[in-house]
Amino acid sequence: MTFAAPSPGEGVPTPPPPAPAIPGDPIPAPADGDVPDIVAAYDRLSERLGRVRGEVGRIIFGQDRVVEQVLTAILSGGHALLVGAPGLGKTLLVETLGRVLALDARRVQFTPDLMPADITGSEILEEDAAGRRAFRFVHGPVFCQLLMADEINRASPRTQSALLQAMQEGRVAVAGTNYPLPQPFHVLATQNPIEQEGTYPLPEAQLDRFMLQVDLFFPDEAAERAMLLATTGASRPAAEPVLAPGELAAAQLLVRQMPVGEQVLDAILRLVRGARPETASDQRVRRSLAWGPGPRAAQALMLACRARALLDGRLAPSLDDLAALAGPVLRHRMALGFGARAEGVRLEDLIDGLVQRLR
Predict the structure, then answer these.
(1) Using CA atoms, how far apart are residues 245 and 188, in angstroms rounded to an integer?
(2) In what ranges is there compositional bias, type Pro residues (predicted)?
(3) What whole-number distance in Å separates Cα of residue 69 and Cα of residue 308?
(4) How far apart are CA 76 and CA 59, in angstroms?
(5) Nearest alpha-carbon partner for 84 in 17, 153, 184, 21
């Protein structure tokens, strides 16, 4: 798997090396309404996803919840913001997922001097042997399937906004021309919550593009012990591909075909609308929040609940999926007012209260 930016002389992304043969039946994308085929495809996909989690777990220790949430975002076709202290394996997790899911993965280190063209690419003026001059577009590192935006909050808001169109529309517009990105396309951005000097807060529009905010914490003692034994020896384990190229796109289509019950649908609407100060029935929520989640939050919950159910081997999402994903989907789409911050109100407590009212 190559993580280097494409050579300017080539002007196109470096293709990933051929993936090895993946054991097991391929994951098809059955037609809508073909219930027996869909159920069989769900069974095959659920088994394959179990192998994906197992392969990632050989490399990443003590972060099962994090792996589940990131896979949920990818299966839903979305992006994830990884927030955690240094040394918790954020970079290694992205590299491992690129390998296990057979995706072309690239990494961009966000710094204060990074420019938008360093991400999307730019046009250069070339002259041929006959003296004719023409502009040629040189693709940037965003032209990949899995982009790691490392320490995204260290770049200026202008540079961060270079990802807005790519994350929402799957294309990049340069000099009036649209360039489609490889599909599937996902952004996994990392953010360090400790070192805030020299960082820029992510704009609300940028935060809203991330389906989930995944918080990383230190592993427990048993996981840290296993990590020490596995990573300090003469050799280190290497991840192997589990999905073949193209199978992830088929899996994402299967997620969108999963039925959602009226109870879960109504709960999603009540949760999202109850988290907005304009429509909340809870007076504490109305007083505490400066702004709340938009329609993208409801869409994210709808897809993420389906993906989590599939990861758990179920054919339909439940209220438990909604409760587990409410925090990761909502916390970066809400902001406390000045008075609430002064009183020590926590977003997590507000979200937990909204979830409790759904049961």
Answers:
(1) 19
(2) 13-29
(3) 8
(4) 23
(5) 153
Q: At 179, give phi and psi (nearest 5°).
A: -120, 115
Q: pLDDT of the chain along its 359 residues, tens only? A: 333 433 334 344 444 444 444 545 555 555 555 555 778 888 888 888 989 998 998 888 888 899 999 999 999 999 999 998 888 888 889 899 999 999 989 999 998 899 988 999 888 888 777 778 888 888 889 999 999 999 998 888 888 888 888 999 989 988 888 899 999 999 999 988 766 666 788 888 888 999 999 998 888 898 889 888 888 877 787 888 888 878 898 889 989 989 999 999 999 999 999 999 988 888 888 999 989 999 999 999 999 999 999 999 898 999 999 999 999 999 999 999 898 888 888 999 999 999 998 87
Distance CA 283, CA 109 (A): 43
Provide CB contacts within 8 A for 352, sequence distance 6+.
327
Domain ranges in the chain are 259-359
- Count of helices and strands (H, E) across the chain: 15, 11
Q: Please say whether the beta carbons of 106 and 3 come within 8 A.
A: yes
Using CA atoms, how far apart are residues 57 and 68, in angstroms rounded to an integer?
10
SS3 120: helix
And the tokens for 329? Answer: 């989907």
Cβ density class 336-350: b for 16+ within 10 Å, e for less: beeebeeeebebeeb
> Dmax of the chain from CA atoms?
74
Q: Give bridge partners of residue 123 from the DSSP assignment.
A: 137
Burial-class residue 139 by CB neighbours within 10 Å (0-12, 13-18, 19+). buried
Q: How far apart, in whole angstroms, are the C-alpha atoms of residue 287 and residue 280?
A: 10
CATH superfamily name and code, 259-359: Magnesium chelatase subunit I, C-Terminal domain (1.10.8.80)
As given in the structure block, the two tokens for residue 150 are 């490392």
